């Protein structure tokens, strides 16, 4: 990426004796989607809070769009959008009123209906948010985060609780936004989502970034490609064989099995991000 | 401070907060209380003073006094009935006009008329009645020299009327209910709904949020105080000074409301805290209810005393700026100290929310 929208240098944050973020550094380029992955309590939210100016790093420095977030918080906040994991909308106001309020706070002229259309809520604009389902609220928060046409968008679990169709439309929206040059900092548990839409992913565990690269490189580096074969035995039982794809004798083994056994199915399989996370950290993502 | 941010949040809070029960209660409660008091005791603040007249000689003075616009004047057939009316507080003062009064006046002997004053009557009423009687006599006599009117206190002069005792409490309610309750509940609701976090990840700062909530409290407090004073004709001779005191009092109370809201995590806790500290906020008003049994200096230790007392002094006793300056100085110092403390609290809350 040509220009870095986010530069985190040696960030540290602790709650009392507990070090939530422990000397992390990374850069996110303009228009890049960075998937920020880690289990609960790994330090994801604390990182986002430091980057969005909600808390100040105890050590280190974060610059967004070339400005130090700790020193020029309000200036930076004019150019960022944040969609939180937990609903924080004005429930007694309508969707349009919520969007208009935040547009006025940013001092921008935004078309609420256009934003609502992006998240498929155009028909519900005049309804009170308290009547919305969790998924609708989630989509409205994403629309709100985009009200100022941000240059950096922070999304915390944006598709959690959404149906598959809505999730897909949100993912497409993220990709469209990123294609227009907006940097997206995506915090998620959803490995499929991270894999599908992130240019790079960062694994955070116990406050430290343990891996940071493109999903494909991580898979190549840590994962093992295998050929998975289902073989039907004489008694009708199905036996599963996994043959490492990159070993020297793989081709011979596959050939032998095809000739001597009743192979029902055969397909290649690569490691998922979750497999890699477990391999690196020794623990799962949830 | 960005005025646009403040204006945006202010309009949101006024438009949507006005439907909030606390908001409505803050406006309605002091007014309802005031109306109930008016029904029970007549006007809480002094309106037109009530004068009784016993005239046995069909004097011109009685005719002129009965036609007065400045007082409510009632005629009594005898001195005994007039005295009873004064002693029971039916009228604030009374004048017994001798049957030869008009003849004495014509002869130039016009001094020496005695006004019987009820011991619990308001000082302001006494001044108005004495002046009105003296002016009327001067007018009837056609002379320019001032007239001396003697006063004689009648009835229990030690204790205050219930109107006077309740007045400080009503004044405190009018200033405090809106100023403390509305900013604190509004802030706690923003915290509970996590909208405060959403607001402060925009360029709006926590200090601006505090200012907006507090400003609404000050406006409500002034509005409520304005209503109470207007409903009861309590503006007195220095209305601008009274407005200044309302603004200063509202500011202190609002700053306290914001502090309360910033330190409380949910509405239930807030109400519990308000119940607990309510007695302290209204303590000067309660102390004023029992002037004979509770030492009145105890009220000095409560900050709200410095809101209440200047309002009473100005509206009831016509106090000037110089008279209330010591109270206002204490009020100003307390307000500035609280606002400075709130500034540091804004940063703390920002971290706490995150």
Describe the structure.
The complex is a heterodimer of chains A (286) and B (354). A 6-stranded mixed β-sheet of chain A has the order 6-7-8-3-9-10, with helices on both faces. The two termini of chain A are 31 Å apart. Chain A is 33% helix and 30% strand. Chain A folds into 2 domains: 4-214, P-loop containing nucleotide triphosphate hydrolases (Rossmann fold), CATH 3.40.50; 224-269. Chain A has helices at 44-51, 73-77, 95-106, 112-118, 134-145, 164-179, 191-197, 215-222, 250-260, 273-281, and strands spanning 4-15, 18-29, 33-37, 59-64, 67-68, 80-83, 152-156, 183-188, 200-205, 208-213, 226-232, 238-244, 262-269. The longest helix of chain A has 16 residues, at 164-179. Chain B is of the alpha/beta class and 354 residues long. Chain B has 2 domains: 3-42 and 161-353, no CATH class; 50-154, 3-Layer(aba) Sandwich (abc type-2 transporter like fold). Chain B is built from 13 helices and 5 strands. The longest helix of chain B has 33 residues, at 321-353. The radius of gyration of chain B is 25 Å and the shape is elongated. At the A-B interface, helix 2 and helix 3 of A face helix 1, helix 8 and helix 13 of B.
List the quaternary state of the chains: heterodimer
Spatial order of strands in the largest sheet of chain B:
2-1-3-4-5
Class per helix and strand makeup of chain B: alpha/beta
What is the beta-strand fraction of chain A? Answer: 25-35%
Mean pLDDT of chain B comes to 82
Radius of gyration of chain B: 25 Å
**Broad shape of chain A:** globular
Looking at this structure, what is the CATH superfamily of the largest domain in chain A? P-loop containing nucleotide triphosphate hydrolases
Secondary-structure element sequence of chain A?
EEEHEEHEHHHEHEHEEHEEHEH
- What is the level-2 CATH architecture name of the largest domain in chain A? 3-Layer(aba) Sandwich
Q: Tell me the series of helices and strands of chain B, N- to C-terminal.
A: HHEHEHEHEHEHHHHHHH
State the shape of chain B.
Answer: elongated
Low-confidence stretches of chain B: none
